[in-house]
Amino acid sequence: YFFFFAWHFNSMSQTVVRLIPFTHRPQTLHALRRMDTAVRGFVFERLLITVITGVLYAAGWALTDVPYWFLLGVATGLASLVPYLSAIGWPLAVILKYADAVTAGQSVPTEWMAILLWPSVAYLVVQFIESWILTPWLQSHSTDMSAATILIVVFLGGAVGGLFGLIFAIPVAACFKILIEEFVRPRWLRWVREA
User: Fold this and answer.
1) Contact 137/150 with Cβ under 8 angstroms?
2) Please, are residues 79 and 91 in contact by the beta-carbon 8 Å criterion?
3) How far is CA 172 from CA 95, 134, 154, 165, in A?
4) Cα 183 → chain centroid
């Protein structure tokens, strides 16, 4: 569906523009351009977060001697396209470290710290950087929302919509904010001045 939608996007957008009443067209097109910029910025910065976290996961697991650290780091970084989905990398890193210890003939009870703790620490450090620094900071620039608002929106989106809520919470909130700024706020201010 995305392919066909993208293929005919220009003709569809021209049709939609013709359906907007002429008196409201400039304001509506301005709001739509702002929404397009916000969503495009969200996607670009989500991809940037994916690359940064992929590198950080790979580096952390390389330092802790997790087998296949590069592939696991890249896969976990790609999973971070969806906020907080990168959690799948944590148990995989521990399982790979455990399997490596067993096949190397190491005594698992004496090596529990290297098997469980160090891959977990590497994951948790990168997860902290992504969740509390990168996502709020980068996404707040593209969507013109504060970092605290981004965190609240992501948590609410996940609670209400699950996985899809996590994916779409930030761009939907950014578009909703733009609609309020463009259409509701001016009328509210006019009403306040007249009252």
Assistant:
1) no
2) no
3) 37, 19, 11, 9
4) 27
In this structure, what are the phi and psi dihedrals at residue 162, rounded to the nearest 5 degrees?
A: 65, -135
Tell me the backbone φ, ψ of residue 70, rounded to 5 degrees: -70, -50
Task: Convert the pLDDT of each residue in 32-60 to its tens digit.
Answer: 999 989 999 888 988 999 999 999 999 99
Query: Tens of pLDDT along 170-189?
Result: 899 999 999 999 999 998 99
How many CA atoms within 13 Å lie on the side-chain side of 181? Answer: 13
- The answer to whether 171 and 39 are in contact (CB under 8 A) is yes
Which of 20, 136, 143, 130 lies closest to 86, judged by CA?
130
Which phi and psi angles does 68 have, rounded to 5°?
55, 35
What is the C-alpha to C-alpha distance for residues 53 and 48, in angstroms, rounded to an integer?
Answer: 9
State whether residue 146 is helix, strand or coil: coil
d(CA 190, CA 182): 13
d(CA 129, CA 110): 31
For 55, residues 6+ apart whose C-beta sits below 8 A from its C-beta are 73, 77
Q: To which H or E segment does residue 118 belong?
A: helix 118-129
> What's at 22, amino acid-wise?
F
pLDDT confidence of residue 83:
66
The total number of residues shown for the chain amounts to 195
Q: CB–CB of 127/80 below 8 Å?
A: no
